[in-house]
Design goal:
CATH architecture of the largest domain in chain B: 3-Layer(aba) Sandwich
Order of helices and strands of chain B: EEEHHEEEEHHHHHHHHHEEEHEHHEE
CATH superfamily of the largest domain in chain B: P-loop containing nucleotide triphosphate hydrolases
Radius of gyration of chain B: 56 Å
Structural class of chain A: mainly alpha
Helix content of chain A: over 70%
CATH topology of the largest domain in chain B: Rossmann fold
Largest sheet of chain A: none
CATH class of the largest domain in chain B: Alpha Beta
Distance between the termini of chain B: 19 Å
Radius of gyration of chain A: 9 Å
Helix content of chain B: 55-70%
Largest sheet of chain B: 5 strands, antiparallel
Strand order of the largest sheet of chain B: 2-1-4-5-6
Order of helices and strands of chain A: HH
Number of domains of chain B: 3
Strand content of chain B: 5-15%
Shape of chain B: flat
Strand content of chain A: under 5%
Oligomer: heterodimer
Number of strands of chain A: 0
Structural class of chain B: alpha+beta
Number of helices of chain A: 2
Largest interface: A-B, 21 and 21 residues
Chain lengths: 35, 590
């Protein structure tokens, strides 16, 4: 997994958290999108 | 600026006009001042911040509002919560701690008491979103991935051991195969001779003998089982037969006929009693009819009929009706019991005549079959014993012809061949396990990459949180010093937020935590920190609210602060207590 993607990954997750999607499934989905 | 309030806190209805500059809000009691500050909070706090504060709404009302220059914000009671209609009149993005200097302000309280204000610093920046992300779904996902990783790790960690065992097994197999190869030419040579052929024959015979022995064992088992079952079956048949013989069909049929007759007799009696009953009922109706019509002649015989006689007759008829009803019940009950007895006898007859007899027949057939089978097996046993004897004789003959040397080579070869077979199976099993492990390792690598990635994400997010907090801290520190200097206070060389997010002061070259200072100094610094924050984050927000409690410590010092705020903020609101008067008043001076 590309470590350079970390800031983008975190930003994408935070956008979801702000929308109220703050569960583990959202994080795992975003992780799969990177692979 | 015009403010209109309705049903906010303790205020039912109020209109207030604020002037630019200082506004001293005076009220006769603490509730009035608090309600005025509450009104400003209703105007600017977020829905989430208002929701749980039911005290914002007057206890006797279900809705209230604040209107600032025509812009309305309404709150409504919804069960144990408050609902909000309308957007904030001014947007302060959950930074009310920077503009409401009052006892309820937790940020001001923490500053004054010299506590860690890291959480507030975090709240003033995006760091709060990063923290929320780390503490919710991210935490759960990391935990789940770690758990999977540990599970897979348990499976893959014995790879080297498995590999070692596989290599050893392969080595052993190579060795055994080489030994077999060495024996092969000698074995082939022996196979080609007449002796070799005889050896093959012996091998086949050995197999046949084994086969016969197995079959004989099987037969022995079958005979044993059937011999054990036969006596049981025979006893069951004999018991059933005894029961059938004992049962007298003729008497049973006779008894059933008797039951039928008994039922018929009772049914006739029932009919008879029913007739009598209907006659009695008719007579009762006649007597009661005559009674209702006040007739004095008997409807049956036409003779004169007085009231006494009628009552006597009626009583007699009801008595007869009771007796007949009882008789009817008795006969019906007799019919019911006789029917049950007849049915039971029929069931018993059926059981003996059909079920038991059928069972005896089936079991007798089984016994015959079983005995026949045993005889067959015994015959087979005899035949096979003879075959076995014959084959053993042949084997003896063959063994005479075998020389010891060739026999040893063949035995050695067979032994080596068996060992190769076992070693091949073992090696194959290791290969399958290693192959399965390769798949698991691939999954392990993937999960490990995710785990590593999430660990780095955590480090990155924590660094970002620290960076953002430090940026906020730096901004605060710059502003605090500026405001402090502009106010013209000289007590300290500097005031700043330190690494642990505590407010510290430098006095005569020495650093001191704020909690060592006098209350008036601490409150001054608290308000200065708030002002620094407001100037940085809410420069256009038109209010700065000071509660009397914050200003009362040192009036001289606070008049300087208020003068400073007046120049920076449109409306400086200071709430003060007024012992006289019955309503809120706004004045331009304290």
């Amino acid at each position: 997994m590309d470590k350079n993607q970390i800031p983008n990954f975190v930003k994408a997750c935070i956008i979801e958290v702000k929308k109220g999607n703050d569960d583990d499934e959202m994080v795992l989905e975003k992780l799969e999108e990177l692979e | 600026m015009k403010l209109e309030l309705q049903n906010i806190g303790g205020i039912v209805k109020e209109k207030v006009e604020l002037k630019e500059g200082l506004n001293a809000v005076t009220a006769p009691n603490a509730m009035g001042k608090t309600s005025f500050i509450t009104a400003l909070k209703v105007a600017v706090l977020s829905e989430k911040e208002i929701k749980d504060n039911t005290r914002f709404l007057n206890d006797f009302a279900n809705s209230g509002f604040v209107e600032i220059d025509g812009k309305n914000r309404t709150i409504r009671r919804h069960g144990n919560e408050l609902g909000v209609v309308g957007k904030p009149v001014f947007n302060i993005n959950s930074k009310s701690q920077l503009v409401f200097a009052e006892p309820d302000n937790e940020f001001l309280d923490d500053v004054i008491k010299g506590r860690d204000i890291g959480d507030f610093i975090e709240g003033f920046s995006d760091a709060k979103h990063y923290k929320k992300f780390l503490e919710s779904g991210f935490y759960d996902a990391s935990k789940e991935i770690r758990r999977t990783l540990v599970e897979l790790n348990d499976k893959v960690r014995n790879r080297s051991e498995l590999q070692k065992e596989h290599t050893a097994s392969k080595k052993e197999l190579d060795k055994l195969e080489k030994e077999l190869d060495k024996l092969k030419p000698q074995k082939e040579k022996i196979d080609a001779t007449a002796f070799g052929k005889k050896t093959q024959e012996k091998k086949q015979l050995d197999e046949k003998v084994k086969e016969i022995k197995d079959r004989m064992n099987e037969i022995k088992g079958n005979i044993g089982y059937n011999s054990k079952e036969l006596p049981k079956l025979k006893k069951e048949v004999s018991d059933s037969q005894k029961e059938i013989d004992k049962f007298d069909t003729h008497s049973a049929e006779k008894k059933i006929e008797e039951y039928k007759k008994e039922i018929e007799k009772n049914e006739e009696l029932v009919e008879q009693v029913r007739g009598e009953l209907s006659n009695i009922k008719l007579q009762i109706r006649n007597v009661e009819g005559a009674e209702n019509l006040n007739m004095d002649i008997c409807s049956e015989c036409g003779r004169p009929y007085d009231e006494k006689q009628r009552r006597k007759r009626k009583a007699e008829l009801y008595k007869s009706q009771g007796i007949k009803n009882k008789e009817l019940e008795e006969y019906n009950s007799k019919i019911k019991i006789t029917k049950i007895e007849m049915d039971n006898l029929r069931v018993e007859t059926d059981r003996i005549l059909f079920d038991l007899t059928g069972d005896v027949k089936t079991k007798s057939n089984t016994i015959t079959e079983c005995e026949k089978q045993i005889r067959e097996w015994q015959g087979e046993q005899e035949r096979r014993s003879k075959d076995l004897e014959k084959f053993n004789e042949k084997l003896k003959e063959l063994k005479k012809d075998l020389d010891m040397k060739s026999q040893t080579i063949i035995e050695k070869y067979d032994d080596a061949n068996d060992k190769v077979g076992v070693a091949q199976a073992k090696t194959k099993q290791f290969e399958i396990s290693i192959n399965d492990l390769t798949e698991i390792e691939k999954e392990f690598e993937l999960v490990k990459a995710r785990d590593d990635f999430l660990k780095d994400v955590k480090v990155y997010a924590e660094q970002e949180i620290k960076r953002m907090k430090d940026a906020v801290k730096t901004l605060f520190n710059k502003r605090i010093s500026e405001v402090y200097n502009l106010l013209g206070f000289k007590n300290f060389d500097s005031i700043s937020i330190d690494e642990g997010y505590n407010i510290v002061v430098r006095r005569k070259g020495k650093m001191q935590n704020i909690d060592r200072l006098a209350t008036s100094e601490r409150v001054t610094i608290g308000v200065i920190v708030m002002l620094a924050g407001k100037e940085e984050y809410l420069p256009d927000f038109p209010f700065f609210i000071l509660d009397e409690i914050t200003t009362a410590y040192d009036p001289v010092r606070f008049s300087k602060i208020i003068n400073y705020i007046k120049d920076k903020t449109l409306y400086t609101i200071v709430s003060t207590f007024s012992p006289s008067g019955d309503k809120i008043k706004v004045e331009a001076k304290l």
